[in-house]
Amino acid sequence: MLDSIDSHILRRLTQNSRISYTDLAKEVGLSGVAVKERIDRLVNQGIIEQFSIVISAEKLGKKISAYLELEVEPLHLNHIVDVLKKNDQVAVLYEMTGPCILHIHILVESITEMEQFMNESIYSLDGIVRAETQILLKRHKNQDGLNI
């Protein structure tokens, strides 16, 4: 179970994973060493899975952010997942509840590149029953993980 100090540390790390142990220590009233030990414990317990950064796909030329929902035949599910996991244009790949549903987030430079992705990476795969695509217009909030 998390105490209030652990919760505060997790909240601050979700806001800025580069915050120093010293700055966190000042906020929670502990030493930098004690904060490091708490973070190490949270990592070892699997509560913190990874430290990461958020990259602006748009500033790197990926102007199109699209979400796909694929309904696949169960027999082909594992193969389709394996193929899509290897594709650099696939940013997120989730298996969802329902009749074998895959939820995919892709980042591409243009509609032409998206069309090429659909033709070469989706429509060419055996076992896809249905594919629905939605293009992101505007991001209002982006949060990974839990609110603590």
From TrEMBL:
Signal peptide region: none
SUPFAM superfamilies noted in UniProt: Dimeric alpha+beta barrel, Winged helix' DNA-binding domain
The UniProt record lists the keyword Ion transport: no
PANTHER family: LEUCINE-RESPONSIVE REGULATORY PROTEIN, TRANSCRIPTIONAL REGULATOR AZLB
Occurrences of domain HTH asnC-type (ranges): 2-63
Organismal lineage: Bacteria, Bacillati, Bacillota, Bacilli, Bacillales
GO cellular component: cytosol
Record's keyword annotation contains Ribosomal protein: no
Superkingdom as given in the UniProt entry: Bacteria
Pfam families hit by this protein: AsnC_trans_reg (PF01037), HTH_AsnC-type (PF13404)
One GO process term, biological-process aspect: response to amino acid
GO terms of molecular function: sequence-specific DNA binding
UniProt protein name: Lrp/AsnC family transcriptional regulator
Key words of the record: DNA-binding, Transcription, Transcription regulation
